[in-house]
Q: What sequence folds into this?
């Protein structure tokens, strides 16, 4: 495992990458409406990357065709945007997106509520979002990185009874979209790397309302919950500072 410590000037570039990505998310949030397709949202996201003069991080990555991963309801991650998947009242819609600014990556995900969403589903989305911020609050140099997953699992599974999708993890990020270390969303009992100032990681709790089991569709990208229960993801790119976490992908 090779964890790359970033210099202050490198984190400055990642900070700008993250700021642009957060701005794109803000515009996407205002754009999304019931009745549009996930492909419509993807096209707008591509327009925004051109507007802000950044490169899409996902499009072409290992052959992925979209600018965003567009996961609706039971879709967990890596869902290809299509003109056939129409957003409707009551859906939840996870947008996962990354950009490259001057060679530096940022990566983030949000889950939007489309129209009038069932209160139980709204609560689920809220819990996964809160788990992300609870984990971010635990970030501090000198602590083991597995405190992140321990915090997420304890809140999502232990307190609320939802299921962490254990096959999917957060990750290091920088000049590459995926760098060391893995950032698990559960209590990993192995030897955990110690957090250090200058590390940059993406924390991304991913959970299902039902079972944590998943399956991949025939397109070889789209992952869904095996029991078709609702799934949710939230993600931020952060830098570890001497005082804790700096969230790079928020305005």
A:
């Amino acid at each position: 495992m090779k964890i790359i410590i970033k210099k202050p000037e490198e984190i400055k570039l990642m900070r700008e990458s993250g700021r642009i990505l957060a701005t794109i998310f803000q515009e996407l949030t205002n754009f999304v409406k019931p009745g549009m397709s996930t492909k419509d949202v993807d096209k707008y996201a591509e327009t925004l990357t051109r507007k802000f003069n950044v490169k899409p991080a996902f499009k072409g990555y290992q052959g992925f065709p979209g600018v965003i991963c567009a996961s609706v309801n039971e879709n967990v991650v890596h869902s290809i945007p299509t003109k056939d998947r129409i957003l409707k009242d009551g859906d939840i819609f996870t947008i996962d997106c990354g950009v490259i600014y001057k060679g530096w990556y940022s990566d983030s995900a949000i889950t939007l509520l489309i129209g009038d969403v069932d209160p139980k589903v709204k609560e689920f989305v809220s819990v996964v979002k809160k788990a992300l911020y609870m984990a971010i609050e635990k970030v501090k140099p000198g602590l083991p990185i597995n405190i992140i997953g321990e915090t997420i699992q304890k809140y999502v599974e232990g307190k609320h009874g939802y299921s962490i999708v254990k096959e999917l993890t957060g990750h290091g990020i920088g000049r590459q979209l995926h760098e060391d270390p893995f950032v698990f969303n559960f209590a990993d009992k192995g030897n955990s790397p110690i957090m250090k100032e200058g590390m940059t990681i993406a924390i991304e709790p991913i959970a299902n309302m039902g079972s944590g089991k998943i399956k991949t569709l025939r397109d070889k990208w789209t992952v869904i919950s095996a029991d078709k229960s609702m799934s949710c993801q939230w993600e931020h790119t952060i830098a570890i500072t001497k005082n804790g976490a700096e969230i790079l992908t928020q305005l």
